[in-house]
Amino acid sequence: MTESRQGPLWLLRILSAIVLAAIGGIHLFLIFHGVGGLLGTLFALNSIAAIVLAVGMLVLRGPWLRIATVLSLLFLIASLAALLLALTVGLFGITEVWSFTLVPETVIIEAIGIVVLGITSGATMRRARVA
Fold first, then answer.
1. Beta bridge partners of 94
2. Which residues of 11-40 are buried (b: 16+ CB within 10 A; e: fewer)?
3. Residues 86-124: pLDDT tens digits?
4. pTM here?
5. Rounded to the nearest 10 degrees, how much is the dihedral formed by the CA atoms of 54, 55, 59, 64?
6. What element of type H or E holds 129?
7. CB neighbours of residue 45 within 10 Å
8. What is the mean pLDDT of residues 5-10?
9. What is the DSSP secondary-structure string of 100-114?
């Protein structure tokens, strides 16, 4: 693959990793600032998954990269859906409010992340067909 064609994909991978790390960081921040119980456990799992996927975006190649991009996209969709459910009808007995710490910021970052990872997933799939 030529450097000119690898550059945009590498930039998308970096942006994807940044978004995933930000989501993991937000959930980790919330754990250290008093969120406990079932929600704290779910946040810990979310943080671990986000960081593992962020690292995967940077180090994986070939079919493993395609798997990581699709899993990352699905992860962010599920994370945003869980937050929106908690904000509306509740999820696992947990109801959330917009005024809670970092809720609006999380919705914005996850929505941006879904767009970025959607583009990254498309680019990695297209690259596989071209190669």
1. 91
2. ebbebbbebbbbbbebbbebbeeebeeebe
3. 999 988 888 889 998 899 999 999 999 999 999 999 999
4. 0.90
5. -60
6. helix 103-130
7. 11
8. 80
9. STTHHHHHHHHHHHH
Position 80, amino acid: L
Amino acid, res. 59: V
CA pseudo-torsion sign 24, 111, 82, 11: negative
Q: How confident is the model at residue 5 (pLDDT cuts 50, 70, 90)?
A: low
Residue carrying the six token digits 């990254």: 120
Query: Whose structure tokens read 């930000």?
Result: 22
For residue 34, what pLDDT band results from cuts at 50, 70 and 90?
confident
Please name every residue paired with 91 in a beta bridge, in sequence order, or none if there are none: 94
Please measure the distance between the N-terminal and C-terminal CA atoms of the chain and give it in whole angstroms: 8
Quote the tokens at residue 123. 């680019």
Q: Which pair of structure tokens corresponds to residue 13?
A: 């991978």
